[in-house]
Amino acid sequence: MTSPVLTNVMPFFTPASKSRGSYLRVHVCRNPLSDMRSDIPSCRTLNHQFKNTREVAAAITGLKLSKALTYLADVKEHKQAIPFRRFKGGVGRTAQAKPFGVTQARWPAKSAEFVLGLLKNAESNAEVKGLNVDELYISHIVVNQAPKQRRRTYRAHGRINPYMSSPCHIEVILSEADSTVKREDDGKKVARLNVRQVARNARKARLTRA
């Protein structure tokens, strides 16, 4: 089995052979809006269940980094659960899924532990790049299926069945949140009218002109 390798894929092209001068393309699902304000840790051929890791990634998308770290640590201790929305066949129900608006949830400790380590690695990379760690949030995270790893299991009457594993690729983009500036109050407030109110005002205007 190939062990997962944690890489930082900021260079979009990496030299494959200096003698031939060829290049090996490093595929990323999304390029950050700003390289100076983002960090992209990734992992290839991760020997973790694709379906479980995908649900973990979906649960933390858009969260602030500090909140995501706390959430995944709670999942490992079964204090909070990961809602299963897509790959939910045969998944049991639990009361911890109620805050997410679903009934099915689990505690995929192995996937949560790895994603937690990946986020901590990204946090360290962000500190090296001089980013404000307190303002980082998970702007993009994607989990893709990797080539299945093949084993075999021996059955009765001399048969052999495949015994496959489902590894995955994972990629995260951490970005600094934009600072929001409150609009200055100039005393001119524009009233927002719905369609019915606009029609009523138009009808009153026609009656007044008549």
TrEMBL record:
CDD domains: Ribosomal_L22. GO terms for biological process: cytoplasmic translation. The keyword Ribosomal protein applies. The keyword Acyltransferase does not apply. GO terms for cellular component: cytosolic large ribosomal subunit. PROSITE patterns: RIBOSOMAL_L22. GO terms for molecular function: structural constituent of ribosome. Keywords: Ribonucleoprotein, Ribosomal protein. Belongs to the universal ribosomal protein uL22 family. This is Ribosomal protein L22/L17. The lineage of its organism: Eukaryota, Fungi, Fungi incertae sedis, Mucoromycota, Mucoromycotina.
